[in-house]
Amino acid sequence: SECRWDGQFVLNCSFTGISTVPEDISQIAITADFSYNNIKTFLCSDGRNEEWMMKHLNMSNNLVSELTLTTCTNLPILETLNLNGNAIHTLTLDMPTPANGSKKYRTVDRLLPALKVLSVERNNLNTVPRGLGLLQSLQTVHMSSNAIQQIDPKDFQNCSQLKDIDLRNNKITKIHPDAFRDLNKLQVVMDLRENALTIPLPQILISLNFFQLEVYLSKNAW
């Protein structure tokens, strides 16, 4: 492929015009950049079984529209995932549990166990992806410039390690009072600028740690 490989740590495939992740690239790369291409299928959604040693993956500015991360068992040490500037309207992190109680399709126990940063800015999401709590190490989630309309009580359930949430420039009109209640480690930024909020949020803000947290609420509709 036209990708550049330094022979040790960094794989650079940006601006190469590729439409799929090449099969001849090294699985020992620590950092991989596939940005600014025409890729439609995510790295671990195309049937690859080999284990990657990747810690940082950039797939921003491609053509990914639908993404299922439940298949990502081959990225055990991935720490940062950049999906900015795609066309993602569906991001699935869990699988529904059938009513009959079958274990065959229950939620994934350890999904991307080392992932700390998930960035899905400038996409087409209209809801917060269900199952963020399955990302046990997640500390930062950036979802600005989407079309998210509301924050439900289970959207950030079990996200016990979250420190930074960016929801700026969405279409949020309503946030459930308990939406952020269990985020005890939230201590960096809560960014809700440029949304469609019309009423103050006292119940939500009281539950947050004001001593360590920056909260941005400007350019809303109130």
TrEMBL record:
This protein's GO CC annotations: plasma membrane
Highest taxon listed in the record's lineage: Eukaryota
UniProt xrefs under InterPro entries: Leu-rich_rpt, Leu-rich_rpt_typical-subtyp, LRR_dom_sf, LRR_TM_domain-containing
Keywords recorded for this protein, A-Z: Leucine-rich repeat, Repeat
SMART domains registered for this protein in UniProt: LRR_TYP
Pfam families reported for this sequence: LRR_8
The keyword Heme belongs to this UniProt entry's keyword annotation: no
Protein name per the record: LRC66 protein
